[in-house]
Amino acid sequence: MAIEVRPLTPHIGARLSGIDARRPLTSDELKAIEAGMDRHAVLVLPGQDIDDAQQLAFSRNFGPLEEGANSGARDSELRLPVVFADVSNLDKEGRIAARDAKKRMAALANRLWHTDASFRVIPARYSILSGRIVPAHGPKTEFADMRAAYDALDARTKAEIEDLVCEHSLIYSRGQLGFTEFLPDERVAMKPVRQRLVRTHPVTGRKSLFLAAHIGTIVGWPRPEAMAFIRDLMEHATQPEFVYVHEWTQHDLVIWDNRATMHRVRRFDDLNIVRDVRRTTTRSDGPTVAQEAA
Ligand SMILES: [Fe+2]
Questions:
Q1: For residues 278 and 92, is the Cβ–Cβ distance under 8 A?
Q2: CA of residue 289 to ligand 1 center, whole Å
Q3: How many angstroms does the Cα of residue 2 sit away from the middle of ligand 1?
Q4: 73 CA → ligand 1 middle, Å
Q5: Of 45, 55, 109, 255, which has the fewest CB atoms closer than 10 Å, so is most exposed?
Q6: Which value, to the nearest 10 degrees, does the dihedral of the CA atoms of residues 32, 36, 41, 45 take?
Q7: CA of 88 to the centre of ligand 1 (A)
Q8: Distance, CA 152 to ligand 1 centroid (Å)?
Q9: pLDDT one digit per residue (tens) for the chain, 294 residues
């Protein structure tokens, strides 16, 4: 099968065909995916009817897997092994999660623009999301190109933000929606971490904005001033010209580079329609900036 990569927008997103994610990748296939990711930042591989073991094997091609992505949930409450982020609307018993279920409350923050795991010292490289049950009236996922957004900034703003460092935590993103019920040990686990606001892609050398709803301040700035500025940058970075809107089809496998994109899921009737999508996440090379001494 010949590998074909077809761009979906001028900046971001491409459809990749000619690879079967159920089988081990050849080195040429791996190179084609990585080259496609470096160029387009989001790849859609349609028709990938994979199981959990196949998703794990496929994902391991792209770096060490991040565990515990269902941050805040107790292991005993999980439907899937900790190596998966359960992005479904199902509870441990496979029923649609109740309106006020804690899992649902936390998942609602996925409707805010974010990058996965920017609240970890070593943030994510790729997220790999498998559409196992994709309802006809399910939500779209939107992806914004943080490289194009950076490029479009004026020179003064680029100079101003070059060395800025932000603090990221799940407490901030969930708090934006009014979800503030964290247990003491959760608050410890969600301690803010520092990330550069401008990062450079290790392969392409392109600069991008490292933005997310997880940001709670800019180091050294008064917090309200920081948050007003972050809002401006978010608004700039998510203009339609930088965004690819993905409409899901059953068995889509969607990969995005968290070092170059933000994403959000849109609202849907999640109290009545089953949606089962499962994410694996690989780690990037290291921290974007030194952490504060404990
Ligand atoms: Fe996400």
A1: no
A2: 22
A3: 31
A4: 16
A5: 109
A6: -70
A7: 12
A8: 24
A9: 799 999 999 999 999 999 999 999 999 999 999 999 999 999 999 999 999 999 999 999 999 999 876 555 566 778 999 999 999 999 999 999 999 998 898 899 999 999 999 999 999 999 999 999 999 989 999 999 999 999 999 999 999 999 999 999 999 999 999 988 888 998 999 999 999 999 999 999 999 999 999 999 999 999 999 999 999 999 999 999 999 999 999 999 999 999 999 999 999 999 999 999 999 999 999 999 999 765
What's the token pair of residue 170?
Answer: 């799940």
Which single residue is written with the structure tokens 């994109």?
Answer: 261
